[in-house]
Amino acid sequence: MSTTEKPHTIRTRIWHEDAESDNPFATRAAYCRGYDVYGGMLGHARWVEMLYLLFRNEAPSAVQADLLEALAVALANPGPRDASVHAAMCGGVCGSTAASSLMAALAVGAGQLAGGHEIFLAMEGWDECGTDLDAWRQRHARPDVASGSIWPKSEHAPGFDPHGVSTATSVKQTLACLAGFDCGKYLPWLQQNLSALEKSADCPLALSGVAAAAFADLGFTPDQGEMLHLLLRLPGAAAHALEQRPLGYKNFPFGTVELENESTGEPA
Amino acid sequence: MSQQTKGPNLLQENVGVLKSRMGTFYPGSHVIFRGHDLHTDLKDMDWVELYVFGITNRRFSKEQLRLMHSIWTYTSYPDVRLWNNRVAALAGSSRSTGNLGVAAALAVSEASIYGRGIDMRAIDFLIRTRQQVDEGADLTGCIRQELDIHRSIAGYGRPLINGDERNQHMLALAQSLGLNQGPYLRLALSIEETLFSGRWRMKMNYAGLVAALIADIGFSPREYYLFLFPAFLAGMQPCYIEASDRPEGSLYPIPCADILYEGESRRAWTK
What we know:
Chain A has helices at residues 37-41, 47-55, 62-75, 83-93, 98-108, 116-129, 133-141, 169-179, 186-192, 194-201, 207-217, 222-232, 234-247; strands spanning 10-12, 15-20, 23-32, 35-36, 257-259, 266-267.
């Protein structure tokens, strides 16, 4: 509920628009954090610079933009085996709307297994533990007591793969690439202490763990990291949803359900 | 499936396998819903009864089902200002589809200051507090502890006003159905008395009352969470319809001058 004197105003530190003289609802100029978007940034700014600027108050340095862009490439397509992309394809394969396919990818990709909330929790870890290995060990040993939350309890250390055996090559390649930008202290420390952290977490590092460290190195908060992770994984979901549409449901896994016994309903 | 299996072996055991206790459909033949034939055994269930049976695998009395119906009815407000309803209405104004607008409106209804976020905290607080009081703890001490941790008590106070127009009607209904004598409702009313007579001056809101009533019916927090999903639903479609019937883009139009910019001064992009 707005409490300002003008009840219809929206407060923002991000965006300002000047109106055309003939129409108070038409944009003559738009400014993002003070930069003229259409008159100064367009044609000069990179997509990742705009992305960073929207979430932070300042434009990224060259190395920050490079790191964010590399991370965006790594996250762009989780691939059709990923649950969030699977969900998007469930929309695409039966001709559901484009938005519903992305909403499906967001809902499934929001969770604590490779999803947005896992990023949030892993980034809380960086806030709490930083580069203190003992602090990470204590955090990993602490049981999750998330009672009273809409989120289920965590079933594994956030940022690690509960079904993994060893660190996947793709994860190691991403960590090596992103740590190589030398854009913060967390990614290099994660690379140096990987074995000890995996032992502490009792499972290998996941791509979400690399992403969380990268977001932390870029200075994003856990809330911002969660949001960006949701956003940056959508391109693959969109492409796979569209690809499945002409293939149709007959060419998409359906399967057979084997019913297990369930006791019949009891009175309350 | 072995509960001990871990890692890729666990996943491998489940490749191409779909096992369910919940049900399946046999195309052209019949549907099994939690062990029952939907179109013969369950065909006379009303929709809410089926909905809570699907969640709990339990059957409920006529009075309990009546209460559950009304829990949804009493909190369905076709007021476009409410933040979740506004999402449905903005979808209508922007000429999006009704499904997308209402689905998004329901999704945002698990907010931290209203809806599922506060509902989960409310039932969790009641369950924890009852346990502590049963073990001999002092109720005022439990309330102080909760306020120290969260700075608020879920189910008490309200974002817009301290007081809730729904509660008197829901309490009257619960009384008429004989469902107002449960231990959680008694506890919730004691908490309200403590909070209102103390320096906090907070009254119980609908989230607190409904959490107590449903806890007395025996729902777990997860069952309660899933039960409440459509709680605001009936108020959303009217908002979508009205916005759809008006000229496109005419809901909450915002002139450029109504954006109150508080950020950096203008500067040149030099990269």
